[in-house]
Amino acid sequence: MHLTQPRRGLRALVAGSLAAFLLLVGAAPATAADEQNGVEGKSFIIATDTTFAPFEMFKGGEVAGIDMDLLKAIAESQGFEFEVQSLGFQAALSAVTSGQADGVIAGMSITDERKEIFDFSDPYFDSGVQMAVAASDDEIAGYDDLEGETVVAKSGSEGLAEAQKLSEEYGFTVKALDQSATMYESVKNGSAVAVFDDYPVLAYGIAQGNGLKVVTDKIPGGQYGFAVAKGENQDLLEAFNTGLAELKESGEYDRILDTYLADPESASNGTFLDVVADSMPALMKGLWNTLRITIVAFIIAMVLGIAFGFMKISTSRILRGIASVYVAVFRGTPVLVWAFLFYFGLPQLTGVKGDIFWAGAATLALNAGAYLTEIIRGGLRAVDPGQMEAARSLGLGWGKSMQRVIVPQAVKISTPAMINQFVITLKDSSLLLTIGFAELLYQAQQIYSVNFRTTEMLIIVGIMYFIVITILTWIANTIDKKVNK
């Protein structure tokens, strides 16, 4: 008895000590490794604006820039993966608020107004604004020379805010544009005398040969931050902050910045043919996407046009009313409204992430379908009523008369207008760049945002559109001649 009692006490002491240890471990503060568990192994969609070099851009077919390199390094250290969704700046913000993207990194300044909608990371870059003019301009040397003139700045940017403040004092007009490359072209072609932009973006553009020069000192500005929707994806935000701190401590942060800011690589002054050769792989990819979405959308539009076209000539007032409302709604509203509604609005209402291809296809199909409805209705109405009477007198029913007599003649009448609508749909597909669909013009924007050869790129794209539309129109007309002899 005297031997067993100490053993029981010893066992109790060990058990109690082990329990206390486990409680202490469980209550211990989370380490950096523990914090990784919230995002480790997960994949996120990150929205950005790849026309904001040197922070975001496409280079050599890959997404690059300060923001992208920081994000890649942080993702690697924190154990998560991400997919970049390249949009315009405003569309990138909409993607996050609508739930289409988990976060946004796009040289975005942290402001009190934005804090009401987004949660921001720790700042990762201290910015500032400068003014630049055309390199050949010796008349504008500062703000005092801007009275009565027009300047440009990027929509939603700190440069725009600073320009608007100064405009009240110096009496000039401010015009907002969506892209840095477009702003620089406006200054070079004389539609504006100066541009206000973030100083590293201006410095990088000048190094690439954008044809401008800086004429003012830097206005100390705000700080850039990574952002998520208010109250959402807090684990991603914490992982970004942890990874950013590690990059700064290791010196990798400074190395990334120096890659783009210390001595940016100058663009080559290649010939027009060099620009064509360098850009063709990306442009051909964009052309394929343009043709693919146009064909899919037009097939759907034809089905809608035929269905609603017959409803428009129906004896039923209800069917005619439904068809009339459809035509009125989609012919009376801009294509861009529906593109944003289908890709950003519906996911926000339903909670289901949308697919960019099908959102774009639906936009084009419903718009083209409304016009095809009227084309088909007009074709059916254009057939002489005596044709129906003659078919019925021969003993054919209404359905057979439409199938064998009326519709073939209506198709022959409507085909030229249908071909024209196909061409319009193909050109309208360029509007889908606003939601980030990588069609032909979108690819051109990505290229000239880096090489600043805007005029040459637009000429190349215009030629490509002209060639493709000419070929497709010739094919359609050839088929029309053979089928409708």
What are its keywords?
disordered N terminus, D-Maltodextrin-Binding Protein, domain 2, 485 residues, elongated, 4 domains, alpha/beta
Would you give an account of this structure?
The protein folds into four domains: 4-30; 35-124 and 225-261, D-Maltodextrin-Binding Protein, domain 2, CATH 3.40.190; 128-221, Periplasmic binding protein-like II (D-Maltodextrin-Binding Protein, domain 2); 272-483, Orthogonal Bundle (MetI-like fold). Strands 8, 9, 10, 11, 12 and 13 form a six-stranded mixed sheet that branches. The protein has a three-stranded parallel sheet with strand order 5-1-6. The chain has a three-stranded antiparallel sheet with strand order 2-3-4. With 485 residues, it is of the alpha/beta class. The protein has helices at residues 4-27, 32-36, 66-78, 89-97, 112-115, 158-170, 180-188, 199-207, 234-250, 252-261, 272-312, 317-331, 335-350, 356-382, 385-393, 398-428, 440-451, 454-483; strands spanning 43-48, 51-52, 56-59, 62-64, 81-86, 103-104, 118-120, 125-134, 150-154, 173-177, 194-198, 212-214, 219-224, 227-229. The chain is elongated, with a radius of gyration of 30 Å. It contains 18 helices and 14 strands. Residues 1-15 and 17-36 have low confidence and may be disordered. The relative contact order is 0.10. Helix content is 61%, strand content 13%. The N and C termini lie far apart (115 Å). Helix 6 links the parallel strand 9 (150-154) and strand 10 (173-177). Helix 3 crosses helix 9, helix 11 crosses helix 18 and helix 13 (335-350) crosses helix 14.
